[in-house]
Amino acid sequence: MKKIILLSFLFLLFISGCSYQETMLNTPTKKVEMFFSNYQTLNKSVMDDLDKVVDEEERFNTKQRESYRELMKKHYQSIQYDIKDEKINGDQAEVRVEVEVIDYSKILQDADNYLEDHRDEFLDKDGEYSETKYMNYRLEKLKEAKETVKYNMIFHLTKKDKIWQMDALTKEQEQKIHGMYIYS
After folding, report:
1. Using CB atoms within 10 A of its CB, is residue 47 exposed (0-12), middle (13-18) or buried (19+)?
2. What's the whole-model pTM score?
3. Rounded to whole angstroms, how far apart are CA atoms 45 and 137?
4. Looking at per-residue confidence, does 49 or 22 come out higher?
5. Lower Cβ count inside 10 Å, N or C end of the chain?
6. What order do you get walking across the sheet with 148-160 strand by strand?
């Protein structure tokens, strides 16, 4: 009889512990933390999205695609974030985050400007502009990038069926996370 009581008590403790843990993970802040953790740990869904984007890039050849994929994996792992604030209003929430990423946008702008002034450096043996040469140049410049930029971002979340879910990111948010946001 004591064994049954003890097992029943342990089972109830386990169930309540699981429920408590689920509740602790179901906050707007925790959802945003998990979102960034997925990038830093190269979660399967993050990698699937990256593969889709890379495969759709028509300006890259196979070697360049792989180079870009590796570059972005390192970028994702280096993303730093600091949760600043959480505001909940019913089933809506905002989480304010300071995000620090490698500033690729400046590199890309500089590369485009360089192309305008030095187009002759990107000609093939027949004197024709070579997109491959230029993409190689851009990728090398991106690999050299060290400068970071910080953004204050607000992520919106909605509670559906008692579960907090992040709303879709805006194009601007995506660009900032990927270090590609062009700012003035």
Report:
1. middle
2. 0.82
3. 30
4. 49
5. C
6. 80-89, 92-102, 148-160, 163-166
